[in-house]
Amino acid sequence: QVQLKESGPGLVQPSQTLSLTCTVSGFSLTSNSVHWVRQPPGKGLEWVGAIWSGGSTDYNSALKSRLSISRDTSKSQVFLKMNSLQTEDTAIYFCTRSRIFDYWGQGVMVTVSS
Amino acid sequence: DIQMTQSPSVLSASVGDRVTLNCKASQNINKYLNWYQQKLGEAPKLLIYNTNNLQTGIPSRFSGSGSGTDYTLTISSLQPEDVATYFCFQHNSWPTFGAGTKLELK
């Protein structure tokens, strides 16, 4: 069945780079897009960016200068890298499948703090 | 960016009630509107996609309608397990979410 699972460090220091991995199963990255969505504690959802089935990427305009999304199709993994982290980047980061976000990972909590 | 405004922000209702949640877009989103349910500590779950299409496995008491800028999620008979926050989401252009409606039991 379709599954997505996020992994990465729970704590990142301010100004450092965040690296997250989304490992998927039950579908192909060459046939489906994968998106990143984040949710600050107690707040709403924000689309971060996407990598499409063909490998092209799109980013939230507010984050674009700090963000990179890539993938390794042989390992069924999607990667998010965000640099110059600030406290306001503290959030649960989810990966989700397809343009309609039909399947989600359980999320990974990332805290930006010294 | 398209702004999505949900109302009300909090809704209290009783078991068995018909419940209506609203979502208004700042411009026409051509029915590219989804609804998600998020329970505390869980990932969002897709309920309805493209305005009125029920996702597989979702109970038929959930339904969606709307067009242009105005959209609605209806729960025909509220159940205790429906207590959650509901988010609308547009994917007509750069994706954006509403701020959510928190549904509570009265």
What is the topological layout?
The complex is a heterodimer of chains A (114) and B (106).
Chain A: E1 3-7, E2 11-12, E3 18-25, E4 34-39, E5 46-51, E6 57-59, E7 67-72, E8 77-82, E9 91-97, E10 108-112
Parallel strand pairs in A: 2-10
Antiparallel strand pairs in A: 1-3, 3-8, 4-5, 4-9, 5-6, 7-8, 9-10
Chain B: E1 4-7, E2 10-13, E3 19-25, E4 33-38, E5 45-49, E6 53-54, E7 62-67, E8 70-75, E9 84-90, E10 96-97, E11 101-105
What does it look like?
The complex is a heterodimer of chains A (114) and B (106). Chain A is mainly β. Chain A has strands spanning 3-7, 11-12, 18-25, 34-39, 46-51, 57-59, 67-72, 77-82, 91-97, 108-112. In chain A, the strands form two sheets. A six-stranded mixed beta sheet of chain A has the order 2-10-9-4-5-6, with no helix packed on it. A four-stranded antiparallel beta sheet of chain A has the order 1-3-8-7, with no helix packed on it. In chain A, a hairpin with a 5-residue loop joins strand 5 (46-51) and strand 6 (57-59). Chain A is globular, with a radius of gyration of 13 Å. Chain B is mostly beta strands. Chain B has strands at residues 4-7, 10-13, 19-25, 33-38, 45-49, 53-54, 62-67, 70-75, 84-90, 96-97, 101-105. In chain B, the strands form two sheets. In chain B, strands 2, 4, 5, 6, 9, 10 and 11 form a seven-stranded mixed beta sheet that branches. The termini of chain B are far apart. Chain B has no helices and eleven strands. Chain B is globular. Helix content of chain B is 0%, strand content 51%. Chain A binds chain B through residues 35, 44-47, 58, 60-61, 94, 99-107, and chain B through 1, 34, 36, 42-46, 49-50, 55, 87, 89, 91, 94-100.
